[in-house]
């Protein structure tokens, strides 16, 4: 049975809404902020792409969204992870140069 793109998109949207409503942040104080961010981003992304009719483009977007869901659940971060940074680089963290050097040394000694 072939599932149409429309059904896949609706299933994906429902899945994202469920995740957004039940999301637990790594820092409990950030839970409501992250939940609101997930729901807002989903709403805006789906509205932005609602006029697409190219099946290939729709499939690509669905695959990207599913990958992003898996990464978010695995790492516990709902934000899009930059792909241009090395894997051991801090993401969206403001550290002083001294603190960053200390953390770098700790990572090197742990390896």
From TrEMBL:
Pfam families: Complex1_LYR. One of its GO terms (cellular component) is mitochondrion. Transmembrane segments: none annotated. InterPro entries: Complex1_LYR_dom (IPR008011), Complex1_LYR_LYRM1 (IPR045294), LYRM1 (IPR040330). Residues 8-70 form the Complex 1 LYR protein domain. PANTHER family: LYR MOTIF-CONTAINING PROTEIN 1. Belongs to the complex I LYR family. This is Complex 1 LYR protein domain-containing protein.
């Amino acid at each position: 049975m072939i599932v149409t793109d429309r059904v896949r998109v609706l299933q994906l949207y429902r899945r994202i809404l469920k995740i957004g409503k039940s999301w637990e942040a790594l820092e409990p104080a950030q839970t409501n902020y992250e939940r609101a961010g997930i729901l807002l981003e989903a709403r805006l992304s789906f509205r932005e792409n609602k006029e697409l009719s190219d099946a290939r483009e729709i499939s690509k977007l669905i695959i990207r969204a599913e990958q992003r869901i898996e990464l978010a659940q695995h790492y516990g971060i709902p934000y899009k992870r930059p792909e241009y940074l090395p894997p051991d680089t801090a993401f969206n963290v403001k550290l002083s140069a001294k603190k960053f050097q200390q953390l770098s040394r700790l990572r090197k000694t742990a390896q």
